[in-house]
Amino acid sequence: MNNTNFLNISSSVLLLVSLSGCAIGFDHTLFMTKSNVGVDIDTKAPTAEISIARRELVIAPAFEKGQTPPVLAGFRTGNRLLFGFDVSSVFAGGNAALMLSDPSNIKDNSELCLQVKPVGKLHLGPIELARFSLPTKGEIRPFVFGTDTTFGLKVAWSGMTAQFPDSLKIGFNRKELALAPVFGSDKGTQNCPYLVGMPPFLASIEMTSETATPQTFDLAYRQSFSTGSAAVELAKDPNIKMLLLTRMDRPITGTFAEDKNSICIKQWLESDLPQKKEKTKEINKWLEGNGHKFKSTSLIYTEEFSGVRAQFIKEKNIDCKGE
């Protein structure tokens, strides 16, 4: 699928969804990204770039206390010019985004807790134009999720510009789109009467290339695309989870590797969930007090910080289960 077709299909999908009575920002979440590393020239829409560019957009309903369905996107490139370059990205929503957002998180429930059933109202000044309610039990809503990736040289013609191409792309170009319905349920608890959730989805790509000589070119390419329980299970996998987190735009360096001490610290964090935030603050305060400038507790799980883990457990006198 070329990029022009991708945009046309996306526009058609959005039009059909709108005509069917669905409303982005009320009962649907729209999540889109576009990444470019190299040359991107396109007549639809007019684009001319020689750059590293990244665009992200989300339009989602916001409920009481500012709660929104979770989405997550990360992008990384390591350009080595004539020696090749590597690019990678992660694109997720719902429970999969929740699982990926914190390497020590073992919960997979991203449902939002509301006190009353929400109703969306579209106004033009004081005039109410329409009302929107979330789909509930027995209702079906469309879920659209897709990606489009180009690596290398791509020239596309639509026939509308005579002998000249519509688009020219050299390097890495990727588009990701999700149009996910947001569902409601009144099967909550006394403290949480109404629940709101969104289908989970996860797409990732990792690509590394290396040109040692004009005759030698190595390319490693890995891509995942999943929805539903498959996306959640993929996000739970410790190796994939840590690998994806190293590609996100947070200040994380090093190689993720679990050992008995990292498992011990995770058990300590999860042993009392109401106190997890306080324990996280305790880790960060301890790291700062020992001369470490980073704030992310993720770094305590890297291979390079195995000694830091052992020191933390010893000083805090943490009882590791199974030891």
Give a brief outline of the structure.
The chain is of the alpha+beta class and 323 residues long. The protein contains seven helices and 13 strands.
Structure description:
Keywords: Signal. The protein has seven helices and 13 strands. The chain is α+β, with helices and mostly antiparallel strands and 323 residues long. A four-stranded antiparallel sheet has the order 2-1-9-8, covered by helices on one side. The chain has a four-stranded antiparallel sheet with strand order 3-4-12-13, with helices on one face. A hairpin with a 2-residue loop joins strand 1 and strand 2. Helix 2 runs parallel beside helix 3 (228-236) and helix 5 packs across helix 7 (306-316). The protein is flat, with a radius of gyration of 23 Å.
Protein topology:
Blueprint: H1 3-19, E1 28-43, E2 46-59, E3 71-79, E4 85-93, H2 95-101, E5 112-114, E6 119-124, E7 127-133, E8 144-156, E9 167-181, E10 183-185, E11 194-197, E12 201-213, E13 216-227, H3 228-236, H4 238-245, H5 260-270, H6 276-289, H7 306-316
Antiparallel strand pairs: 1-2, 1-9, 3-4, 4-12, 5-11, 6-7, 8-9, 10-11, 12-13
Key descriptive features of the protein:
single chain, 323 residues, alpha+beta, four-stranded antiparallel beta sheet, 7 helices, disordered N terminus
